[in-house]
Every structure is written in C-alpha cells, then in structure tokens.
Amino acid sequence: MTRILFVCLGNICRSPLAEGLFIDKLKIAGLEHKYKVDSAGTSAFHEGSLADPRTRENAERNGIKLLSRSRPFRKQDFVDFDLILTMDQSNFRNVKVWEPGFVEEIAEVKMMRDFDIQSRGADVPDPYYGGEKGFQNVFDILDRSTDELLKFLEGSSSNQSE
Questions:
Q1: The domain 2-153: what is its CATH number?
Q2: Rg (the chain; Cα; Å)
C-alpha cells in the first residue's frame, strides 16, 4: 500500500481538497485499496475543524465531498507515509525542518505542483484571503496535479519530477 500525505499551512483549504480529489480519483479508478491518503497542516491552529466552508462549497460544486478534519503535521508522518506533498515552498521548508536524520526509511517530500503539467514546481496559492475565483483556481490546479500524481504512481505518466 502506498501512503500519501498532502500538507498545507492550516489543513483547511488546499491539503484537504487535494486529499478529497485524490480519493475521488482512486475510487473512480478502482484503486482505493492500493493507497492510504491523508492531509495535515504545518500549523495546529485549526485542529479538529472541517475544511473551510468556501473550500467545501467549491469542492461540492465540482462534485467532490470533503469530510476530513484538520490535524497538525507530526514527525511520525515521516514514518507513516511514503510520500509527503506540500502545497508551497513555506510548507516544504517547515516539513523538512522536522525531517528525522536517524530514520532509514522516511517519506519522500515533494511539492504538489511537481506534478502540475502547466507549472511544474510552483506553489499552490493559498485561497484563504481570496474570493471564489481563487478557490476555483486552486481546485483546477489540484485537479490536474492529482491526475498526474496518480498517473505517475501507477506508472503511466511522462512526469519526470525526480
């Protein structure tokens, strides 16, 4: 089983949306048994909260239901997951600070948009202070990025993000 963790700042906008999108794609492909999927935030400020209402509304308009609750990123996540995908450079740096040097088998940390065919390696913008258009933009970015992520994991992508 491949274990994937999506990470943003508060785990209420971008990472729960990426989680929900990826789970939906796995179900459609009949692959949910092959993957464990979760999301977390580098901040514990929203711990236990559902995704931001605007994120949930946008996801539902696009056919995705978000049910996860915010949780903080933990050092144990390096052991519990195979791949950690951060939404921006700040999240990437914050996660890497926690990376244990003494554990042999730890998760690989990458940027979510390493799998974006339109803007490889860029940040997923935080829509928190933006309007509806910003939330849809993030949905579109994560939709195509999770498509490519699944293709990559299943060995059918030309993604050369490594």
A1: 3.40.50.2300
A2: 14
